[in-house]
Amino acid sequence: MKNQTLCQLRDIVGPENISTSQAELACASYDGTAREYLPEVVLWPSTVEQISRIMVIAHQERIPVVARGAGSGMTGGALPIMGGLVLALAKFNRIIEIDQANQTATVEPGVVTGTLQAEVKRYGLFYPPDPASHKFCTIGGNVAEGAGGPSAVKYGVTRDYVKGLEVVLADGRIIHTGVQTDKGVVGYDLTRLFVGSEGTLGIITKIILRLIPQPKSKQTFLVVMDSMAVAAALVSQILCRFTPCTLEFMDRTAIGIVADQLPFEPTVGTEAILLMELDGTAISVATESTDLLDFLVGQPGVTLVRQASDATESEALWAARRAISPAAFSLRPHKMGEDVVVPRTKIPELVTCAEALAQELQLVIFCFGHAGDGNIHVNIMLDRSDPLQLRHAETAKQRLFKRVIELGGTLSGEHGVGITKSAYLSMELDSSTIETMRAIKQALDPTGVLNLGKIFVTAPGANHSK
Question: What are the structural domains, with CATH classification, of the chain?
Fold first, then answer.
């Protein structure tokens, strides 16, 4: 990057908010994929006007730009694979307004999701999207990736709660999308266009979110089964009769990883666990809990039904569920984590496919995730230093994706495409659909500076990868 350009950027954000030091560049070089690409410069802007001026320069000089939140994404969306500059949005961390009467919140993209949830709870309100990383991921990243979480089965995902956005376009123009009202159909729905666009169409600088009343009561249940087929059938039956706010699933390998953290010892022959919650008013939860227990007891294949006795036991169960991903590295040092989705009734076929691939390719593969909406996390464990394992893992991933499409599913439910799934886009989308998406990208980012190389296969042409 030219010295003159660096001086211009320094004038915009101030000398304390720009860095080219190796330490700072390294901190902005990675995400949840454990891959690393060094940018040329990191900026910490604090106003939308600063971002606008930065984008004018980037657009004119054709400098690649990546917006970065907490760097917790799982598909490489925040990786500066083209070098260029990283816009670190840590200073965009204000909850601007919580409108209790109209049940909305206006926030900046750097607000941590869990922080927002705790703050709106003080007003008796609820922001449901709850990715597993909610204690450190940011709202901006959630919006950019279209994040979900366990509560999606009842409450939906991030896009269902975004009412409006402030966005800086690639050439520096600032636009506003959506409305603060419950209804609004003036013009195209640009809000939905930017949600899930992975930072390829604009830099989101302000977000208007829909809130709902905080549930008064919650009850957690654990169901242990001796058959995957029974587990999937039970999921469909439960959802036909009840409205759980979460309905999670673990296969036998996932159970084994966190067995020492469960408040009971899984018996031999345990093939699947369902973890679910009911929420609502105290009366409705009590009534529905009784009905659910009556329904579950005696179901074929169900070996244990456990109702959490209190909040402490409930948290212990969820702690075990959240521990699966980090605990997986005890199996092998690296992971390919895929968040595929299939129709709920097809979950056993997906798990069977994963188990067959593991046996054939001598890999460790396990499944867990959101059984209520068919969004299953398939984890391929490997040692990347072993060329054979790496080759087998790539084969497993491709064959898994092929099977997901055959089952009527999709390749990503909440992690996005980024760079880890871009090569597989044509497995799900036809060429005309992809070209339409490319045309939108070209219209909004004609010089190709915004997160280039993400979603669509584009030759990186960069040598910053470590």
Answer: 3-90 (3.30.43.10), 95-213 (3.30.465.10), 217-325 (3.30.70.2190), 331-424 (3.30.70.2740)
